[in-house]
Amino acid sequence: MPKKPLQAILIDNRVILQSSDASRELYNQSRFGEPLTDGTFHLSMLEALYLLEKKRLIVLDGKGKEIPFEKFLKKARRNNPNLWVRYAVYKDLRERGYIVKTALKFGADFRVYDRGVKPGEDHARWIVYPVHESQAFTWHEFAAKNRVAHSTKKRLLLGIVDDESSVTYYEVRWFRP
User: Fold this and answer.
1) Does the annotation mark 154 as catalytic?
2) In CATH, what number does 83-172 get?
3) For 6-78, which CATH class?
4) How many CB atoms within 10 Å of residue 107?
């Protein structure tokens, strides 16, 4: 039997998941959101999009009206023109069983944990940069991304997204012969 969708509220660009046993269970099992001091959880726009698409979440506006997936996607895209590429990688990794969290402090889009590893229990294995297949990197940009991964003791993963939203991954590592 499918689980009843959780309710969240969109306030500006923040999605707040209400405090409940179900929202705590969602966090404890899959690490969706970040816990706040009042017992609620802050979901990223990508987490909310994913849960909306999976019908595990209902997002309400400030007036208590439900926001459908397409309208929520449009709102999320306003602040992030690269959102669909990022979402394609986020969704693909989640569906492969990985926990995906933001990696802004590392200068990357995501940090990804090995299957079965939860944030706080161990470190992320990869930092991930989603890229559309038509996007080009200079060698300087590529080297900078690799250096960030190396200096944070993580592996660099490039998620290349094609026009059909299929993702191909390339893991990059330092190698000294």
Assistant:
1) yes
2) 3.40.1350.10
3) alpha beta
4) 14
